[in-house]
């Protein structure tokens, strides 16, 4: 069975709609390198095809749009490699994933991403780049890398830090999951529709007045989605707790902010879960999340992807990523042994190691051309 399904549907204006469906339901549509390559190639083909007026990206089934990257395969690639960074398999995965994500941000045609169900990590990296990002009552969105010793990547150092009132820093440190209403509040999505509206919306695309011009067709898609009745939304934790989140993250140092969040003593279940996840998570991830957002302040999106690629391949050469995946997904003992064990043990030199650019094959950064 193909892990990605592509089809083109004719419209009454003589154009076509390109549909790309992530089709790996058993893994919650998690992205493998093969899927990334297929998707990247097809999206580039459609971008250059004058007949294609709009592209739709969605996931098979009801449970997930995309649960992130295939970190199991990444774990095995890390276990088998003994050389200096970059690990060629890991570098290929992150390089091609980030290149795909950047393509979505720059896509010349309207790009509808239907982010229903689970949207985690690399799944959010796909959704965030869409011109029209739909969430539903089932959407569960987050960057949970603190639980596996990676860091919020796929451009998150750029898009999380743009969230108001330090909410993006909070999400990066705690891995907290948010709902569709939260995504609207945080600027991570554009429309809240019913999950059952999907087929109706998709069928309406064939009848829209497409022009073949990217800017005008974005307005066509906007009008179509705005005409769909918005259902009642769940309460937004980001909205409800905005002042508290800002206060928790208002410190001038990482240690102060982490102490604030871990020390939360209120009775709200969502904030308590976020606090406990940070307390149990990788101290190195917390430090990298803080430093990445600090360094990204004046960077372009392309520069952020270049920086994240360096840190990602360095994470593959340091202990926590392999240990975190082992504990959560391989042995499933949920007892990772982080290195260093605490935030107090992390030194500036340790963090700098993660930002040290490796010697790339060919001598040039793989994303230099973005």
What percent of the residues sit in helical stretches (DSSP H or I)?
40-55%
CATH structural architecture: Alpha-Beta Complex
Name the CATH superfamily classification.
Answer: 2-enoyl-CoA Hydratase, Chain A, domain 1
Q: Output the strand order for the largest sheet.
A: 1-2-3-5-7-9
Radius of gyration: 20 Å
CATH class: Alpha Beta
What profile does the largest beta sheet have?
6 strands, mixed
What is the first-to-last residue Cα distance?
Answer: 33 Å
Query: What overall geometry do the principal axes of the alpha carbons give?
Result: globular
Output the structural class: alpha/beta
Overall number of structural domains: 1
| CATH topology (level 3) name | 2-enoyl-CoA Hydratase, Chain A, domain 1
Number of helices: 17
Strand content: 5-15%
Q: Point out poorly predicted stretches.
A: none
Give a written overview of the molecule.
By secondary structure, this protein is of the alpha/beta class. The protein has a single domain, classed as 2-enoyl-CoA Hydratase, Chain A, domain 1 (Alpha-Beta Complex), CATH 3.90.226. Helices cover 45% and strands 11% of the residues. It has 17 helices and 9 strands. Strands 1-2-3-5-7-9 form a 6-stranded mixed beta sheet, sandwiched between helices. The longest helix has 18 residues. It starts with a strand and ends in a 16-residue tail after the last helix. The model has no long low-confidence stretch (mean pLDDT 97).
List keywords for this structure.
370 residues; alpha/beta; 2-enoyl-CoA Hydratase, Chain A, domain 1
Short account of what is shown:
The chain has helices at residues 33-48, 71-80, 88-105, 122-128, 156-159, 167-174, 180-185, 198-204, 214-226, 237-240, 242-248, 254-262, 269-280, 283-295, 301-315, 319-330, 348-354, and strands at residues 4-10, 16-22, 52-59, 64-66, 111-115, 118-120, 132-135, 140-142, 191-192. The chain has 370 residues and is an alpha/beta fold.
């Amino acid at each position: 069975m193909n892990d990605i399904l592509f089809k083109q549907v004719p419209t009454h204006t003589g154009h076509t709609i390109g549909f790309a469906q992530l089709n790996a339901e058993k893994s919650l549509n998690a992205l493998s390198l093969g899927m990334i390559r297929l998707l990247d190639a097809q999206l580039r083909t459609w971008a250059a095809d004058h007949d294609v007026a709009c592209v739709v990206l969605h996931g098979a089934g009801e449970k997930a749009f995309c649960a992130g990257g295939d970190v199991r395969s990444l774990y095995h690639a890390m276990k088998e490699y003994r050389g200096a960074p970059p690990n060629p398999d890991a570098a290929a995965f992150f390089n091609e994933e980030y290149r795909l994500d950047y393509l979505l941000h720059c896509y010349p045609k309207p790009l509808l991403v239907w982010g229903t169900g689970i949207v985690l990590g690399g799944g959010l990296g796909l959704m965030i780049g869409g011109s029209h990002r739909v969430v539903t009552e089932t959407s569960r969105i987050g960057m949970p890398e603190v639980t596996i010793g990676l860091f919020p990547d796929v451009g998150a150092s750029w898009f999380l830090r743009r969230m108001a009132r330090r909410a993006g820093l909070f999400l990066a440190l705690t891995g907290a999951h948010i709902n569709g209403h939260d995504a609207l509040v945080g600027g991570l999505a554009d429309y809240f529709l019913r999950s059952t509206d999907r087929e109706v919306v998709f069928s309406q695309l064939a009848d829209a007045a497409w022009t073949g011009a990217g800017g005008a067709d974005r307005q066509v898609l906007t009008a179509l989605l705005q005409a769909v009745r918005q259902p009642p939304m769940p309460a937004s934790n980001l909205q409800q707790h905005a002042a508290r989140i800002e206060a928790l993250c208002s410190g001038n140092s990482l240690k102060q902010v982490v102490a604030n969040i871990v020390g939360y003593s209120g009775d709200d279940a969502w904030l308590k879960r976020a606090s406990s996840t940070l307390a149990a998570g990788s101290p190195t991830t917390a430090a990298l999340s803080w430093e990445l957002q600090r360094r990204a302040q004046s960077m372009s999106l392309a520069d952020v992807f270049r920086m994240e690629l360096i840190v990602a391949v360095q994470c593959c050469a340091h202990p926590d990523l392999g240990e975190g995946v082992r504990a959560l997904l391989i042995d499933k003992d949920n007892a990772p042994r982080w290195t260093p064990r605490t935030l107090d043990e992390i030194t500036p030199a340790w963090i700098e190691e993660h930002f040290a650019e490796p010697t790339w094959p060919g001598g040039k950064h793989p994303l230099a051309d973005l």
